[in-house]
Amino acid sequence: MSEKLSQKDRVKWIDMARGFAMLLIIVGHCAGISETLKQIIFSFHVPLFFILSGYVYRHKEKSILKDFKQLIVPYMISVFIIIIFNIYANRSISGDYILQTLKSALYAYGSDYGEIKLIGGLWFLPTIFVARRFMNLAFSIDMKEHYRVVVFLFFTFLGVQISRYVWVPLNIDVALIASGFMYVGYLLKTFRININLDILLGCFLIWIGAVKTGVLEMSTRVYDPWPVIFCGSVAASICVIYLCEKLERFKILQWTLSFVGMHTILLLCIHDLDWRLPFGLWWGFLQNFEGQKVYFLFWRRYERT
Q1: Fewest 10 Å CB contacts: which of 23, 43, 89, 244?
Q2: More confidently predicted of 86 and 252
Q3: Cβ-based burial of 303 (10 A; exposed 0-12, middle 13-18, buried ≥19)
């Protein structure tokens, strides 16, 4: 999600776009929102993260060790905390539960799949880790850019086809698709595409058409018809990028969204761990909203057993 950049190297609108996407993830997981609003949010919020990651991608700086520290270490720490939460809640250590959780962490699915239980929103971290490996693979081969376009189109097509038959551990099938979105971000930066009002209007219409055509939810492998849905995700992301560039001059908004955008990995982990809390923690003034208790970052979708 967020990159380890010095303050002087950070691009404010990128952090703002990340922050906006992170807030949409939280809102999208709320139990009280309409299905229409959820469909709109899910149509682009996760692809936007991948596109922004591709925008700041630099092949020579992307060592596997650096990505492991940035993405997998927080993932492993969060899984460990999940186990501790369960031990605290049940006042006992269940070997079966620990093994089940570790198995869920290995598969890293965002939704239940057969006997494999979901790991929750944490699925994003190993997915982008694997997606960067595909990016490195494609950029390690010296080729002309139009050939690389074909490579990433193939990655995307392959990811879609695999996911129709089987979900691969560590979301490798989803990571193939994610690498395609990342490559779009790379192209946006490399060719310095100037987003004017005509392009913005066209992107907006493409996005609306895609939302009316189908549904996108990457964690559950729902994307059909995928060419239309993915074009809609890219179009919506371009709209968000344009707006964040224009809103950058509003300091309060810039600071707020940038702060969230610079801490997206931490917030994602907290957001996922929140519904697993083994005790009733909520803020008094948010105790009740449409009959739902409002917890640390969002009101529960799941009943604690």
Answers
A1: 89
A2: 252
A3: exposed
